[in-house]
Amino acid sequence: MNLSMNFIKANDQMCTFDHHVNAPLFRKRFTLDNTPRWAKITICGLGFYELYVNGKNITKGPLAPYISAPDDLCYFDCYDVADYLTEGENVIGVMLGNGMHNAFGGFIWDFEKASWRSSVKFAMTLTANGQELFSADETFVTHPSPITFDDLRMGCWYDANLELPGWSEPGFDDSSWQPAQSADAPRGTPKLCEAEPIAVSAEIKPVNIFKCTGGYIYDFGVNTAGVCRLKINGRPGQKITMTHVEILMDKKPYLENISFVRPESWDIYQKYNQKDVYICRGGEAEFVPCFTYHGFQYVFVEGLSEDQATKDALTYLEMHSDLPVRGSFSCSDSTVNKLYEMAHRSDLANFYYFPTDCPHREKNGWTGDASMSAEHMLQWLGAEKSFAEWLANIRACQREDGAVPGIVPTGGWGFEWGNGPAWDSVIVNLPYYTYQYTGDKKIIIDNASMIMRYLHYATTQFDERGLLAIGLGDWLQPMEDGTAATNSADAPLELTDSAIVFDMANKASFLFEQVGLLPQARFAAHIAGNLLNALRINLMDPKTCTAAGNCQTSQALFLALGLFKDEEIPQAKQVLLDMIHEKNDHLSSGMIGLRYLFHVLSALGESELAYAMITNDTYPGYGQWVKDGATTLYENFEKDLSFQEGETAHIPSLNHHFLGDIASWFVKSLAGLRFNPNADDVRRADVCPSFVDGLAFAKAEFTAPDGKISVGWKRADRNVDDFVNKIRNTDAGGAINTIVLSVTAPETIHGQIVLPKGYSFLRGGTCCDLEGGTYTIVKDVE
């Protein structure tokens, strides 16, 4: 792309809370002597744009072109437009929204101070039959649109009385419009957007509507993300206000958990946060908010009359990046199935070009969240293109010394707080897991320099013992009092930070080897070796095989990352089991620990315990959320989310994905489908199921580069309904001893089937080469 392309603007005015500025419209008339064989428009909108050709909205999707820091990368889109052009008069129309270019609603993260802020602007070029016809310049004319306020986080306000019917069509009278003005080009590097666009995936009707003080509550039954389409036969000047929330308090919208409550900003949040406003022109109309999105289950609607408050008035347009689905899981346990569904709904509700941390409050690309979720997302979604695009943004904002911020994009916030190794590990984990699940080496090559710079940076942070403690720790560990800790977790920060850098260095060494960067691989391996020694010498008791902190996270990390010697593992395992039993078989780990804990238990032959901990419906357990009726994963575990009117309640976000690695555990340990377990062969899949007593069947699928792999097992002694009834009957005795395992895979896939302890194939043995077919498995006679 060529940044010599001219950018244009309507004027120098910027929308703020104190000064609303209408989103500008632009149009350009031109004449063609004949219809071109091919034609292309290349456009960059800062912040967002909608593109019209002869009245047709051809924009790739909401929030185009991308969400980025314009000082780092400026995104372009290309459109084939020959089919939309005609002989004679034609019109190009553009509408601009504030987007990240003027994200004043993100003032908590200093986006209102960003160096790139200015009035919105765009560049575009129309090329036909190999020749440039024109670029954006002062021959475009501009006029305010009916959108009187828009912000990515806060919402969209629309006055239908300002509509200009036909504004993007030929024949429209634009004599009163003003010429566009030239604008400064952005400082960021131009880049064609290769991430999947955002799309509407479902239209959801309300499951309940009820009257409340001041208006009506629309309940859509699920907590997800998108916008509402309003259909109304309105009165002239009638004002409809829609406030979007996750939960209600005394049948009223509860705002505190979708905002950061600060005394100086509370009035702003009450007035603006997740709020769309529509002023009617009169008569039948539809309104879909532009340049924003919300996370919500409920909408508080003000301004509707009783006859207007129908189920057809509001429709939830669920939106997210349009990622292909390539994996699945199901089993006989409804709690597990519900958790799998909740994890994936949170994944999608938080995937707007890249993984975010919540769709209602922050909409930020928190690096730690994505790092913890990278593997389970890639097991069921084709997210590699979007991951690669986001990594380009992380590279662009990496500091010269190698440090990376906690949020990307950023205007500079996130270096002093909010990052550290567990968050920074995104720069290794995204390439590593993308390579594991796709075999794509380009993502390694593209990010190798960033990884090397970071490893150099990490070495400058070591203390005299060779350890480091510079970031956030085991975030949101559940505590005995029923709350969640931030940086006061049981696992010492020096342990989690040092262990994560050890893991990063090991993975980096592996990745470098895969692409022939052998000196870099040796450097990374050297760092890993030094950290291995420092961690064992300073943060482990060799007599008891206990990691510092004496907690589930520390012990699980040492076990997961190979920090215990083989001969120490039995004792280290017993230490971990004792820790869990001391908590009455409840989890007590935060974000970092929960990424490793259950996989470690399965590797130690303790899948039954992991299953019990996950499905536990008392605090703290994932099953608790299912029992409470959740439809998405929460930000953290809280003992009691109930509260009374007038109380000051601490309610976490109810839609986060970073605790969703249980979905990966379901696939890899319950169904047993482990694709490319060593990350070095995309034609290998091992099958290592866990036949936990609580399940009658489990199955998983994954579409590998060579084709679909399916694994499923079921107990053959009786039908599933009988079995489920049996295990729920505490008086029933006996055991289910026969299992049928089915595997289908392309002929090019190889691997092994490994049975858990206590089971063998009917024909004998506990391990065999992977082949498609059906296997009969029996429980060993004790």
Automatic annotation (TrEMBL):
This is alpha-L-rhamnosidase. The keyword Hydrolase applies. InterPro entries: 6-hairpin_glycosidase_sf, 6hp_glycosidase-like_sf, Alpha_rhamnosid, Bac_rhamnosid6H, Bac_rhamnosid_N, Rhamnosid_concanavalin. GO terms for biological process: carbohydrate metabolic process. Residues 37-200 form the Bacterial alpha-L-rhamnosidase N-terminal domain. Residues 214-318 form the Alpha-L-rhamnosidase concanavalin-like domain. It holds the Pfam family Bac_rhamnosid. GO terms for molecular function: alpha-L-rhamnosidase activity. It is an enzyme of class 3 (hydrolase). Residues 327-669 form the Alpha-L-rhamnosidase six-hairpin glycosidase domain. PANTHER family: ALPHA-RHAMNOSIDASE (EUROFUNG), ALPHA-RHAMNOSIDASE (EUROFUNG)-RELATED. The keyword Membrane does not apply. Its EC number is 3.2.1.40. Keywords: Hydrolase.
